[in-house]
User: Fold these one by one.
Assistant:
Number 1:
Amino acid sequence: MEWVFDGKKYAKSKTDAKLEFRIKKHQSVLLKKLGENNEQLQLNKVTNLKIAAAKINGIIIKPGETFSYCKLVGLPTKKKGYLLGMELSFGEAKAGIGGGICQISNLIHWLVIHSPLTVTERRHHSFDPFPDDGRVLPFGSGATVFYNYIDYQFINNTEHNFQINLWFTDKCLEGELRIDTELDYAYHVIEKEHQFLKINGQFYRKNEIWRDKLLKFEGGKIVATELIMKNFARVTYEPENYEEVDGETNKNLTL
């Protein structure tokens, strides 16, 4: 009902022809070690990713249009070919139909924050259930989705057309964000203030994600810097290095 009456114009046009200029490319490993006894769920996840990626690959986001992950991908069901994959719920990993497709929304969000597109709906997991295993991107820089309660959306408030392309290699999910006109600026995203904390016997993880806007043709001159995300999440494992703080200090950590 919301998609019908919210007044948004949702992106739906797709094409195999790639827009001329690439803004950002990224890849993420398909099979990771996440806990124990989940090898089959990891393999099933690859199947789920390929089904979901086909719904998004080649999508064009025109000026004034909103990209909605849930609207494009839809509800993962057995009938559509989705298998049991790993999904996170309240800090625990469990099997669920279509589990693992957040890997696509995570990748897309990383591409989008390197562009002038405006994120309008985004959430990340409130728990960190697994130690880092070859992490490349900063903690908390992803975007979780759960049809149809939690969506990932961004709007194109520019005069340009954008395009998302997704594909697979033997080991990775790969994606890129393209545009029809080359921009004279780019973005650089970094992590700051990363820390593990122990508060009243429970572990937490916090960090900040910052973004610099650079002029390409002036030696990468920084013209703007902004804080785009602050993360504070419960950790369900014991990190190797952490700082223990008291409950009073905890009051100052609310984000």
Number 2:
Amino acid sequence: MHDARPVQSEVSGYISNLLRQHFGKGPASVYVTMKRPYITIHFRGFVSPMEKILLDQEEGKRVLETRNFMFNALKPEILNELWAITQLEFTELYADWNLTLKSGMFIGVMGEEDIKDPLEWPEEADRDIFHKQVERVNEEAARIPDTIETMWMSNRTLLLKRSGVLVGIEKALIEEGFIEILKLTKRPLEQKLLKAAPLNHSLQREIDEIFMDWNFSQDVGYIAFILSAEPRL
């Protein structure tokens, strides 16, 4: 792989141009972080003129449906370009959007998930308590995941992977083809529960944003927490 900083800059430029080309307006900023086996791409200031009109008319669901449709169509192109830029093979790509803050997140996952390059947990944060809190949130929403893994991508980005998250009714909906409807329903519910949980106490950071997405065929889900820059006093 090339030197990390120029690669991150190149990925940032590519994502900016891609969104501008397909949505008519690019983001104001893009932050790229790579820690094997993941890449996170966090962008801000992203809403097109047409989307703004729809949002003003409280048509946020339509905006999300259109973005998800576009993202799924662009996913192969994005994965190919990530390989061309980084020389790393990302086999999965996830996305979520925060329409209120005009931000979004792409999460790429390499095929070689056993190769990890993590940051240590900060001294002030309690990993075990944080995992227990996430388990309780998941139990309230559906079920406790079979496994929870966390990885600090940077000082402000904490990535969480959940395996074994689906219950029977969700699997039935997926089999019937209601994948996007399930995602649009699960996201606001789980985000509400996560925001209500005392996660900021175990992390000793304020949580600025939460993004999440799933691979239902593999029964896994990812959550990206964007945290405040400084620990709580």
Number 3:
Amino acid sequence: MAWKIGTAAAVALVIAGVASSALPGPPVQRAAWREEYRTPAAIPFPEDNPYSAAKAELGRRLFFDPILSIDRNRSCATCHVPDLAWADGRPRAQGRHGGDLDLHTPSLLNLAWQDGPMGWDGKFQNLESVPFGPITASANMGLSEAEAVRRLAADPGYASAFAAAFPDAAVTRPRIEAALATFERLIVAAPASFDRWIAGDERAISESAKRGFDLFNGRANCAACHSGWSFSDGSFHDIGVGRDDDLGRGRLKPNSVALRYAFKTPTLRNVDERGSYMHDGSLRSLEAVIDLYDRGGIDRPSRSREIRPLSLSPDEKADLLAFLQTLTSGPSTAPVVAELTETPPRP
């Protein structure tokens, strides 16, 4: 990640901070931590799916159009609602027949910085491979790949849009995936008070939030997984939550003890607008999340080595909460999508 601290000295400071007290660290230590959260210069796009405004606009149209569901009454935006931090505000996603699906709807904020496998259990190779999971799932959108391609190819407006985005007007699954992924990489968290503080405005966040930042990077060790500007390492960890039969990435990697009960680290951007929490929506508030980490979760062989009881005081918990609340960009009614331009946009 381009915004990571690159010097051995800085890394040593971070490691040393794990065992530090809850009191604010020396100015040089906090300054080193702050450097890890600088806003990146541009939104990254993969070489095999470069940005174009026409492709992004096609992806935007597909994202909000119920044409990709069998009953034409669901779209990607049914579960990923802009006004709800690109999630749905439910413990678990609602299926097309009315019941709950198995997992909590993750936010789409800052997916451009999520490398590697996607989804709670990493069953998708990359962002491009995600769309047809929910599109073809019978409990979700329930539309076959062949019918999705047929519907779009038969629509003159879409035929024109595909021709503008790609060398010819052919509608194919890879092009649907590429367009949706391009649009989704534009869903970027707007600057929050935390970012103004990182940029040098010392009055942008409270002293309580600053102490929470020190805890987050120091003794509480949250930054071990929720790292960088996007507050996610893009990896999978057992944090000590979930049912015994809820194996997460361990279902796909049965020979790995470390990946049993492991789920992908979500971003913390706009986190206080996104309850419930965890892959199964089992925790209803940020206070409950902090309490889970304070207890250390379920002690089992697969639990991450970064997770252990913290014995936080009530004041320390309040400081952590105050810090997390600085990561929200603003009113949830303000959709966050980078502007469509002919050149790759900035976050």
